[in-house]
Write a structure and sequence with these properties.
3 helices, about 80% helix
């Protein structure tokens, strides 16, 4: 392959991705520690005030539902934008999109196939998120009613 068919890796984008991954890992460890403390606190509070524990758990479940919708929703929007750019340009990765490693450019039918597969992935994420959040919301509402 000649160099016209390869998009060179963007080192800045690589660094940004590494920072994001590290931030997610640190946040995960932080929230894991916080959840352990919360669990201990809820067990102690359960003996004195079960209603308060119940309300706190419902609040955390609702926050999880909203966070899930926002994060996966933003990812789905990005995926759809990438797919539309791929299909319109008939090239993957589309022109102007940075890559984290040297990538061979797909053109024509291969690029269209990749674009359609990306759309299917985006639709799957949206449907999965809606179903998950619907069921979580039903659980929360069932708990509130009972």
């Amino acid at each position: 392959m000649n160099n016209n068919n390869i998009i060179k890796a963007n080192p800045v984008l690589r660094r940004i991705l590494l920072i994001i991954i590290l931030a997610v890992l640190v946040s995960g460890v932080y929230f894991s520690i916080k959840m352990q403390k919360l669990k201990t606190e809820l067990v102690v509070t359960m003996e004195s005030d079960p209603e308060l524990v119940f309300e706190k758990l419902l609040t955390y479940m609702k926050a999880f539902i909203v966070a899930n919708l926002v994060i996966i929703g933003m990812l789905s929007i990005y995926i759809f934008i990438l797919a539309v750019k791929t299909i319109r340009s008939r090239q993957f990765p589309p022109p102007g999109v940075g890559v984290i490693r040297d990538t061979i450019i797909q053109k024509g039918k291969n690029a269209l196939r990749t674009g359609y597969l990306i759309i299917i992935l985006g639709l799957f994420l949206i449907v999965f998120t809606i179903i998950l959040n619907y069921h979580l919301n039903r659980i929360v509402n069932t708990i509130i009613i009972n």
